Amino acid sequence: MKSQDIRKEFLEFFKSKSHSIVPSAPMVIKDDPTLMFTNAGMNQFKEYFLGNSTPKNSRVTDTQKCLRVSGKHNDLEEVGHDTYHHTMFEMLGNWSFGDYFKKEAISWAWELLTEVYKINPENLYVSVFEGSDDRDNFGLDTEALELWKEIVPEERIIFGNKKDNFWEMGDQGPCGPCSEIHIDIRSDAEKAKVPGRDLVNMDHPQVVEIWNLVFMQYNRKANGDLEELPAKHIDTGMGFERLCMVLQGKKSNYDTDVFTPLISEIEKITGSKYGKSEETDIAMRVIADHVRAVAFSIADGQLPSNTGAGYVIRRILRRAIRYGFTFLDTKEPFIYKLVSVLSDQMNSAFPELKSQESLMQNVIREEEASFLRTLEQGLVLLEDLMKDSADKRISGEKAFELYDTYGFPIDLTALILRENGYELDEKAFEKELKKQKDRSRKATQVSAGDWTELGEVEDEAFVGYDQLESDVKIAKYRKVESKKKGEMYQVVLNRTPFYPEGGGQVGDKGILMSSEGEVIDVVDTKKENNLIVHFVKELPQNPETNFEAIVNKTERYNTACNHTATHLLHQALRSILGTHVEQKGSMVQSDYLRFDFSHFSKVSAEELEKVEDFVNARIKEQIGLDEKRGISYQEAIDEGAIALFGEKYGDSVRAIRFGESMELCGGIHVQNTSDIWYFKITGESAVASGIRRIEAITGEAAMKYFEEQAEVLKEMKAGLKNPKNPVKAINSLQEENTALKKQVESLLKDKAKNLKSELKQEIKNVGGVNFLSKKVDLDAGGIKDLAFQLGEEIDDLFLLFGTEQNGKALLSCYISKSLVSEKDLNAGQIVRELGKYIQGGGGGQPFFATAGGKNPGGLNEALQKAESFIK
Ligand code: ATP
Ligand code: MG
User: Does the pLDDT value for residue 182 go beyond 90?
Assistant: First the structure.
């Protein structure tokens, strides 16, 4: 059975049991502060389990893109070393939201595996939660046990502890006991030796868990307590790649058709053969796995970067590059070449890969090239470190510096040191690493208390499209603490006019005014698992009274101008640069907007001007807003609306149209484009390879910008003594400046010539070396010229020049090549050593090197020391 058919069969099976098939949610999570990436199929349904919203269908099924590389579920270190854990994998699942429970979940899972997929039931083991005697104090899950007993003989039922049989998504959130289904795919001979039941949950590569049936019935609160969920749910997750391994009769996920095309492409590119050695096999598995994780993330809009989710993606890609570099000898970018294989293969289930193929290739290639450069540089630095180490031992601090400043991976450092017979102080390295982690954890840590519930949240709680003020009650609140912002409260209202941050637009600010006249500032609004939370510094005296929620209208209006301008900008870019332009991120604030998009070269000044004109023309046309709420996704797309990759859309969407521009968007917009007044681009830059960024301002901010420009012009004119034509005045100033520079240059050359003949007289013979160490009054370039000119005229020359410029010291050392090889002198080493006298450092080549420092007072001492090197 082909993997595609296996996936289809699963979805069809549950469709036949009245489940609706829904799309996978994006892998990168935006509205849940407790999770960075989707790590299980249930994440996108969390709001239903928590009762924050009601699903349209109480039974759904899907295949979900998951990534387990951070937080509670982190499999990264296993990946490649074993054959059944991936970073990115598909989780097949069926859900009941308050509908069926254990009985159906268990019997359908069994029916699908044994009757549809025809897996031999004798190879299957199931587990049941045995209970726990900790603070949760659970009993045995007798309900599940009785149900399983009707299907499987008791000797294939296993009792599992909390670690294996109580599923939790994270430290907080919905959870419950579970029953796992494990499979034994060993040969009969092996089975005869050790019974499969002894190997369940023992990390045996051929006795693995394939499906987990979770019986969701609790919510883990911040204080660790459990509370019953409002209703009982089913959440199941089956590893798609593992299922393929079973149904295709393979012993490793990497031998299924999910991975073989990638593995054979890696073989083709690297010339290594899969199955030859454990080391290269691991590297090939790592690369085949990681390219999937990285490609899927980029397609979902998450590019590699220096922070947050982007940094995790960058690290995954670097891990793949490193395994290639170390074990497959790949010194050129090559992982990007796997992207087309992957997107061809995945096209039917995940068309987003194919449509973004060239973007993914570009980004990955660029990342590879830059990290390979880092690796090369790191190797040089490491060699220097080894040369400088007398006791064949590299300190943890130095290794950490290599890792932290240059991105050079520690395991590679360790490997190279080992190969060269050096030792690494790993303990000290770990200590440094921990210090750094503590620092960044402290900076970001947020903890949330439990909700105090006062009332219900309405179904359509957001009323902010139509109202900026509204009579409200507080439905619940809780305390949150972040190291950055300190102590705050989150307040949820029964309904709210406040727009929660989303779609790039910032959250609304404003006030809550109580019926008793108390005023509470709302400093931010965000969405969390479909709840709209308002951030306030303090709670009202009487939270149960009536409030008026009032949005800050000026900020809201300016933000709306910028949001609509963003849509017009998107349209302008697509019409001027081409339809390859896709939105890759945006930031809409009250004072400016930022728009990232795919495009492969710098946007030229003329193009930017055209873009600006295009948008300003739409503003002048005074196009009215045409808003459609609650239309079906398909209807909107058919009408030409643009949807974004990596966004989660429900069945019913909101479409925003201004003339020819139509986008799916939940944000706030102006009523008429003329409200924007004016659109001005203030910057264009690169964010990543193939991604450009435009920054712009509108309305009030644009007005202020022009005023400031006028002020600058006024001051400039005054500085030029108010000429009639300031442009001409600047040009002539510049011409004059160029002429003067030329004069100075030629004067300096003469001076250097004189100096050269003076210095020649001063060179003395010290033990067969022509030696001079002296302070001179030239700049760095002049000194270098002088040294090389002297070097051409005089053999066996050793020069050390010191100079002071702008309060800084500079040492330059020149050594004839003959001396470098015969006398084993090294200018780089010499300046490094002498650098300490001027409180600085430097380096260079054995025949010419420089050191800069902040203490000119030490120059004389350094110059005096020079002679000791040739003695
Ligand atoms: P394991 O113990 O094998 O790590 P798990 O207990 O972490 O599995 P669950 O969290 O219950 O797994 O996830 C449900 C299913 O998803 C598992 O039964 C398995 O088939 C699959 N799965 C889990 N983690 C991975 C992974 N890293 N790569 C591939 N499949 C996975
Ligand atoms: Mg696991």
Answer: yes
Q: What is the pLDDT of residues 335-358, one digit of tens each?
A: 999 999 999 999 989 988 998 999
CATH topology classification for 3-258:
BirA Bifunctional Protein; domain 2 (3.30.930)
Question: Does the Cβ of 65 fall within 6 Å of ligand 1?
Answer: no
Which ligand places an atom closest to the C-alpha of 180? Answer: 1
Contacts 24+ apart (CB under 8 A), 429-438: 429/396, 429/399, 429/400, 429/403, 430/396, 431/396, 432/396, 432/397, 432/400, 432/404, 433/400, 433/403, 436/400, 436/404
Give the confidence band of 442 by pLDDT, cuts at 50, 70, 90. Answer: low
pLDDT of residue 443: 62
Average per-residue pLDDT for the chain: 93
73 CA → ligand 1 middle, Å: 9
- What are 820-843's pLDDT values in tens digits? 988 888 999 999 999 999 999 888
Atom of ligand 1 nearest to the CA of 210: 20
The predicted pLDDT at position 156 comes to 96
CA distance 583 to 519: 39
* CATH number of this structure's domain 556-707, picked from the four choices 2.60.120.10, 3.40.50.2300, 3.30.980.10, 2.30.42.10: 3.30.980.10
Q: Does ligand 1 have an atom closer than 6 angstroms to the CB of 212?
A: yes
Does residue 240's CB lie within 6 angstroms of at least one atom of ligand 1?
A: no
pLDDT in tens, 526-558: 998 889 999 999 999 999 999 999 999 999 999
* Nearest by Cα to 84 from 190, 248, 213, 240: 240
Query: What does the domain layout of the chain look like in residue ranges?
Result: 3-258, 259-365, 366-446, 447-551, 556-707, 746-869
pLDDT band at 482 (very low <50, low <70, confident <90, very high): confident
Q: Which long-range contacts (CB under 8 A, 24 or more apart) does 519-523 make?
A: 522/491, 522/498, 522/549, 523/488
CATH of 746-869, one of 3.40.630.30, 3.90.480.10, 2.60.40.1220, 3.10.310.40: 3.10.310.40
Question: From the CA of 181, how far away is ligand 1's center (Å)?
Answer: 11
Ligand 1 atom having least distance to the Cα of 208: 3
**447-551: which CATH topology?**
Elongation Factor Tu (Ef-tu); domain 3 (2.40.30)
- CB of 235 sitting under 6 A from ligand 1: no
Would you say 534 is a known binding-site residue?
no
